[in-house]
Amino acid sequence: MKVIHIMVGGPQREIPDLEAYNQPTIIWLGVDGGAKWLLENDIVPDHALGDFDSLTAAELEMVRAKVATIEQFPAEKDQTDTELGLTWAIDQGADVIRIFGTSGGRIDHLLANLMMLTKPQFREAIEKVELIDRYNFLKMYAPGTHTITKIQDMQYVAFTTMGNVDGLTLKGFKYPLTDAAFPFGVALSSNEFLGTEGEFSFQSGLILMSQSRDEGV
């Protein structure tokens, strides 16, 4: 299984402890300022890309000196740096893509990262992608039946409808649903697992599932 971890340039306070994620077989991609953050935390990315507009000239030279391969893009472009990173990971044939540093800071960056997975070019890869920060785990799902496992220390689970969702059924959760329809976006938040697993299914649209814990817990 090929696993690629992508570090983007979000606030360091939102990034989890990476010790559990830094196995020797993992391929690391540093995106824009995420490349600098990895190097400062003793992780040398295999590849770095982005417009690097958040780095000083000296910081960019430091990245160039330590990272084997770098792709620099113009600041004015159609894709965000995170989208470029996701495209690169897909092109490498990744089976699992974990993205860190997508939350916190500017709200437009957060919204762009969340909406990214609704784009048609990423549709076939959405269930490979996990967005992870210190307090949240997020994953997009296409229609079907899905079983999810409760993550330790994550108390809450939420289901956010991205577009027109039909036939949403939730089983194994504190607040169940049966064949519900949501022709609009809605965050079904603050739900909880009854045990260690839950199941949800739906017939159309996309759902962003998140598991979360309160800050400081």
Automatic annotation (TrEMBL):
Residues 144-208 form the Thiamin pyrophosphokinase thiamin-binding domain. InterPro entries: Thi_PPkinase, Thiamin_PyroPKinase_B1-bd, TPK, TPK_B1-bd_sf, TPK_catalytic, TPK_catalytic_sf. One of its GO terms (molecular function) is thiamine diphosphokinase activity. This is Thiamine diphosphokinase. SUPFAM superfamilies: Thiamin pyrophosphokinase, catalytic domain, Thiamin pyrophosphokinase, substrate-binding domain. Its EC number is 2.7.6.2. It comes from Listeria grayi DSM 20601. The gene is thiN. Keywords: ATP-binding, Kinase, Nucleotide-binding, Transferase.
